[in-house]
């Protein structure tokens, strides 16, 4: 196996042992060598003790999706030693802590074993048990630096910037790296044919988690009120929001906060807080996962019907129920699109990179206020919690938020005709709203989830109710014209593939792999629901269409069938449901089953 | 009943310091049953806000679901209101309050809305010490669904169906006390003279002000065997003392002898004058307040009046240290960091 800049390393660790930061140090070093990299943390729902894995894919071609098969395994967890040993790809390398001998039943002729006595090295060099544990991780990273023939200075730079605020930790960390590096050099020179060599392939890209970009986006979007309830994998969205608020939103003179973050008693209260704040004119948001969306459903219906802006971030995880809470999935599509009882539809956004999480948080906030309705950004665990190579964050200082149709004091003062909260003045289905406290005599109304007429007055007149419901559909049609358009690559092929969110990484790679098999496809990446006319055109202009997604029930396909009245047989399903990020090979295999 | 509210008012009707008449504080015509206690509470709210010279549009009215929660339309018609979902008024009010700390928040709820479906939200809005008035229109039953017992119905109390309740009653005042409310009061919809000063005190209180108002349901729970009926409640009231509210700067008109009354000063200088009775105790002592409720309970009576007052606790905004300006009034320039921070930010991710 001789590979340069194209292989997968699996780290098998014990949860809570500090391995994730060491593994990230390795991934970051690859990135800093100018080589595209993707890192995926496959962690348990546990605080300490259970097995955890970390996959790093190094891809000179720039493929950032998950790839099956491990070319190099770093095995530091005795609990999973057998599994990790056996799953190594033929011709691969098995790196283990040789302080203890490998059990005799682990015998493979088709792999190379690299034993480095991590525990022994640690015991010889450190007395503090915690340091022994932490530096064990750093030592194996140092050994990898040698084995993969990586430029060591990149690691030194990383450590220096990571511990810029804690300078006394720099020396010991670099020293630990060297312990591993030197041991590998002395004992395993010319053993490993997997190499990571410097390239110039990452440009100005950054390495960031989707949730960090989302929290940052909320700061730029002007969110001042956040209500939230902790739930994996969404918690880090609010943590990031708080971190950046503390950095950018504390009044320098008074030390007071230009934000309010309320940790609520549950998801119901979290969305209630968002609704109350948005209704009262502040930009607000919350982040949750599938179980939270279920709990928020009643309130989402209120916001839909009473026309209150809501921006909600759903970091999807494997359902149903508690499901696999630390595994990814795209399985809240239908429950979010039609959340709540009665006839409801919610606007959805589908980001597929951290940078897009940032951009769509701003867009989502704007759309929710423009449309006065819930907008749900459908991220997922893979996008939210893993570090992705992504375009840099950009902000245009000339950009002004779209606060939608809000009447201020002057507007109300000038108003001659009677104002109606639910009156469709402009013919786009979007009425004008007022904020409490604006005007002493004009613009007050009673917001309610019960049926109301155009003047917000309670009514049980079926015709009046019906008129309001039909107007909401008109607003829905307006939404189709202003939500982000699908990204389409067309080359007159008969076969089209449709994908969204984190399936995009693998789908784009699959397109290349299919070309090698002489199967050419057109591509469409859906970025929003409701679907704009371009989505309908794409669906209608392709004979066979594959809808690639990460759920069991083909939820996006169902939305397409339902909303566009497509014959279901025309849409083939490519469904990955095991909770691991979808791979290009899986997509290719599924498509070839049909096309060949 | 009439569906048209008379707009006629006496031409010399009293105006308040803002030049507004009481009519400016009214809402639309009630659609509750004739004689419903809730309408008396609405009337007391109208009078209190009028006499306290609060600009109606600077008030936000919120509610949950149920008979009680319909009532915000019956007062302060010039104020924005929000009829939320069942049991969730506290969270919406929390969000609204976070957005704009400069308005006055008054939430009304019922015993079902608060003590059952909304118990969690009630508990947490109390412990956050949100600056709001929280009124429970407490009738011990579910009116809109035809009279089922609620969680505040006393053991043995029977409504129109005649079946005595067998489950323990939740005392919302005790709960509010335990959870840290700074202003806890109980009143009776039929006792305007007590309710109005309590409402005025609540308006002045900076923090969470809770008033449990027993408000009989004339249709389903005004029976001889109900402990929430007019007759029973009237016969079993036991006040902590008669109460008067004296606004800031206003001279005391009645000269209370030192021995029989005491003054409680609110944060802006207004005063609550309490005429002492046998239940005189230190209103700022949670333990004594709890004891007073239990003692009166043991006598088979209902303790009303101001039960507890502690103005020292920080409200939510003070705790989270928010800026003086309302968050909803901050401009894009004030909250968006802009492109100048991006170089540093992006570099941090490389």
Write the layout of secondary structure elements.
The complex is a heterodimer of chains A (596) and B (350).
Chain A: E1 3-4, E2 6-14, H1 19-32, E3 37-42, E4 51-59, E5 70-75, H2 81-87, E6 88-97, E7 112-116, H3 118-125, H4 129-147, H5 152-162, H6 170-187, E8 194-195, E9 206-209, H7 210-220, E10 225-228, H8 235-248, E11 260-263, H9 267-279, E12 284-288, H10 290-306, E13 310-316, H11 333-337, E14 347-349, H12 354-371, E15 374-380, H13 381-385, E16 387-390, E17 406-407, H14 409-414, E18 433-434, E19 446-448, H15 462-482, E20 487-489, E21 495-499, H16 503-516, E22 521-525, E23 528-529, H17 533-540, E24 544-549, H18 555-564, E25 571-575, H19 584-595
Parallel strand pairs in A: 1-8, 2-5, 5-6, 6-7, 10-11, 10-12, 12-13, 13-15, 14-15, 17-18, 21-22, 21-24, 24-25
Antiparallel strand pairs in A: 2-4, 3-4, 9-16, 14-23, 20-22
Helix pairs in contact in A: 1-4, 1-5, 3-4, 4-6, 5-6, 7-8, 7-12, 9-10, 16-19
Chain B: H1 37-51, E1 59-63, H2 67-70, E2 80-83, H3 89-99, E3 104-110, H4 111-115, H5 119-128, E4 132-138, E5 141-142, E6 148-149, H6 172-179, E7 183-188, H7 192-204, E8 208-214, H8 230-236, E9 237-239, E10 242-246, E11 261-265, E12 271-275, H9 286-298, E13 302-309, H10 316-320, H11 332-335, H12 342-348
Parallel strand pairs in B: 1-2, 1-3, 3-4, 4-8, 7-8, 9-13
Antiparallel strand pairs in B: 5-6, 7-13, 10-12, 11-12
Helix pairs in contact in B: 1-7, 3-5
Describe the structure.
The complex is a heterodimer of chains A (596) and B (350). Chain A has 596 residues and is α/β, with parallel strands linked by helices. Chain A folds into 4 domains: 3-195, Pyruvate-ferredoxin Oxidoreductase, domain 3 (3-Layer(aba) Sandwich); 208-390, Rossmann fold, CATH 3.40.50.970; 406-482, no CATH class; 487-595, Rossmann fold. Chain A contains 19 helices and 25 strands. In chain A, helix 18 links the parallel strand 24 (544-549) and strand 25 (571-575). Chain A is globular, with a radius of gyration of 27 Å. Chain A starts with a strand and ends with a helix. The model of chain A has no long low-confidence stretch (mean pLDDT 96). Chain B is α/β, with parallel strands linked by helices. Chain B has one domain: Thiamin diphosphate (ThDP)-binding fold, Pyr/PP domains (Rossmann fold, 3-Layer(aba) Sandwich). Helix content of chain B is 29%, strand content 19%. Chain B contains 12 helices and 13 strands. Chain B has helices at residues 37-51, 67-70, 89-99, 111-115, 119-128, 172-179, 192-204, 230-236, 286-298, 316-320, 332-335, 342-348; strands at 59-63, 80-83, 104-110, 132-138, 141-142, 148-149, 183-188, 208-214, 237-239, 242-246, 261-265, 271-275, 302-309. In chain B, strands 2-1-3-4-8-7-13-9 form an 8-stranded mixed sheet, with helices on both faces. In chain B, helix 7 (192-204) links the parallel strand 7 and strand 8. In chain B, helix 1 crosses helix 7 (192-204). The longest helix of chain B is centred in the N-terminal third of the chain and has 15 residues, at 37-51. Chain B starts with 36 loop residues before the first helix and ends with a helix. The model of chain B is unreliable at 252-256 (pLDDT under 50).
């Amino acid at each position: 196996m001789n590979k340069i800049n194209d292989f997968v390393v699996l780290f098998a660790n014990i949860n809570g042992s500090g391995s994730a930061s060491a593994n990230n140090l390795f991934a970051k070093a690859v990135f800093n060598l100018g080589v595209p990299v993707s890192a995926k943390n496959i962690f348990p729902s546990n605080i300490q003790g259970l097995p955890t894995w970390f996959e790093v894919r190094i891809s000179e071609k720039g493929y950032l999706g998950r790839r099956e098969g491990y070319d190099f395994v770093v095995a530091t967890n005795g609990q999973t030693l057998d599994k990790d040993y056996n799953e190594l790809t033929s011709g691969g390398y098995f790196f283990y802590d040789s302080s203890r001998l490998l059990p005799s039943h682990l015998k493979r002729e088709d792999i190379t074993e690299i034993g480095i006595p991590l525990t022994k090295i640690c015991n010889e060099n450190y007395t503090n048990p915690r340091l022994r544990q932490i530096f064990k991780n750093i030592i194996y990273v140092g050994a990898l630096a040698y084995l993969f023939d990586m430029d060591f200075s990149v690691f030194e730079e990383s450590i220096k910037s990571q511990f810029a605020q804690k300078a006394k930790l720099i020396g010991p960390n670099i020293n630990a790296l060297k312990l591993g590096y030197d041991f590998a050099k002395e004992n395993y020179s010319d053993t490993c044919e997997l190499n990571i060599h410097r390239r110039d392939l990452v440009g100005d890209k950054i390495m960031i988690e989707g949730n960090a970009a989302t929290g940052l986006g909320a700061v730029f979007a002007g969110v001042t009120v956040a209500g939230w309830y902790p739930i994996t994998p969404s918690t880090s969205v609010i943590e990031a929001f708080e971190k950046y608020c503390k950095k950018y939103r504390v009044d320098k003179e008074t030390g007071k906060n230009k934000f309010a973050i309320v940790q609520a008693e549950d998801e119901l209260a979290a969305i209630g807080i968002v609704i109350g704040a948005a209704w009262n004119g502040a930009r607000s948001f919350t982040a949750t996962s599938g179980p939270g969306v279920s709990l928020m459903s009643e309130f989402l219906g209120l916001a839909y019907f009473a026309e209150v802006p809501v921006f909600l971030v759903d970091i999807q995880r494997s359902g149903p129920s508690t499901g696999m809470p630390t595994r990814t999935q795209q399985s809240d599509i239908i429950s979010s699109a039609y959340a709540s009882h009665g006839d409801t539809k919610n606007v959805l956004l589908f980001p597929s990179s951290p940078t897009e999480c940032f951009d769509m948080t701003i867009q989502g906030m704007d759309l929710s206020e423009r449309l006065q309705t819930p907008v749900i950004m459908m991220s997922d665990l893979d996008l939210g919690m893993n570090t992705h190579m992504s375009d840099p964050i950009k902000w245009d200082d000339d950009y002004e938020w779209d606060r939608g149709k809000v009447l201020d004091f002057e507007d109300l003062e000038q108003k001659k005709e009677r104002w109606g909260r639910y009156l469709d003045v402009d013919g786009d289905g979007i009425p004008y709203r007022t904020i409490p406290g604006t005007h002493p005599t004009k613009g007050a109304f009673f917001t309610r989830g019960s049926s109301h007429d155009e003047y917000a007055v309670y009514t049980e007149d079926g015709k009046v109710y019906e008129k309001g419901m039909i107007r909401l559909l008109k607003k829905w049609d307006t939404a189709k014209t202003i939500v982000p358009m699908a990204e389409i690559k067309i080359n007159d092929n008969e076969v089209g593939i449709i994908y969204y969110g984190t399936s995009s990484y693998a789908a784009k790679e699959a397109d290349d792999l299919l070309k090698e098999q002489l199967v050419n496809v057109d591509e469409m990446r859906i970025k929003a629901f409701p679907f704009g006319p371009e989505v309908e055109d794409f669906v209608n202009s392709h004979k066979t269409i594959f809808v690639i997604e990460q759920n069991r029930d083909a939820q996006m396909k169902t939305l397409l069938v339902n909303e566009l009245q497509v014959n279901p047989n025309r849409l083939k399903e490519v469904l990955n449901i095991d909770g691991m990020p979808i791979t290009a090979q899986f997509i290719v295999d599924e498509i070839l089953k049909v096309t060949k | 009943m009439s569906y048209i509210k008379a707009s006629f008012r006496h031409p010399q009707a009293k105006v308040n310091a803002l030049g507004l008449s009481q009519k400016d504080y009214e809402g639309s015509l009630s659609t509750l049953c004739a004689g419903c206690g809730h309408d008396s509470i609405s009337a007391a709210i109208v009078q209190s806000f009028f006499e306290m010279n609060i600009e109606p549009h600077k008030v936000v009215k919120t509610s949950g679901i149920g008979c009680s929660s319909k009532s915000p339309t019956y007062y302060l018609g010039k104020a924005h209101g929000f009829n939320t979902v069942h049991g969730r008024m506290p969270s919406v009010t929390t969000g609204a309050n976070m957005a704009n700390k400069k308005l006055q928040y008054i939430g009304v709820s019922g015993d079902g809305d608060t003590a059952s479906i909304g118990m969690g939200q009630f508990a947490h809005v109390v412990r956050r010490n949100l600056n709001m008035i929280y009124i429970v229109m407490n009738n011990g039953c579910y009116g809109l669904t035809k009279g089922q017992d609620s969680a505040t119905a006393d053991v043995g109390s029977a409504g129109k169906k005649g079946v005595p309740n067998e489950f323990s009653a939740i005392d919302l005042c005790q709960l509010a006390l335990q959870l840290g409310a700074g202003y806890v009061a109980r009143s009776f919809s039929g006792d305007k003279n007590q309710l109005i000063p309590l409402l005025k005190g609540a308006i002045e209180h900076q923090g969470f002000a809770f008033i449990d108002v027993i408000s009989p349901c004339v249709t389903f729970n005004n029976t001889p065997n109900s402990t929430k009926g007019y007759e029973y409640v009237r016969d079993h009231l036991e006040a902590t003392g008669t109460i008067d509210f004296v606004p800031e700067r206003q001279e005391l008109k009645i000269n209370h002898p030192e021995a029989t009354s005491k003054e409680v000063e609110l944060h802006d200088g207004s005063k609550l004058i309490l005429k002492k009775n046998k239940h005189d105790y230190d209103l700022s002592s949670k333990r004594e307040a709890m004891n007073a409720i239990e003692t009166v309970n043991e006598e088979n009576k209902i303790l009303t009046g101001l039960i507890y007052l502690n103005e020292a606790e920080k409200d939510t905004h003070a705790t989270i240290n928010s800026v003086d300006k309302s968050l909803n009034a901050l401009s894009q320039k004030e909250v968006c960091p802009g492109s100048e921070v991006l170089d540093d930010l992006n570099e941090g991710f490389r």
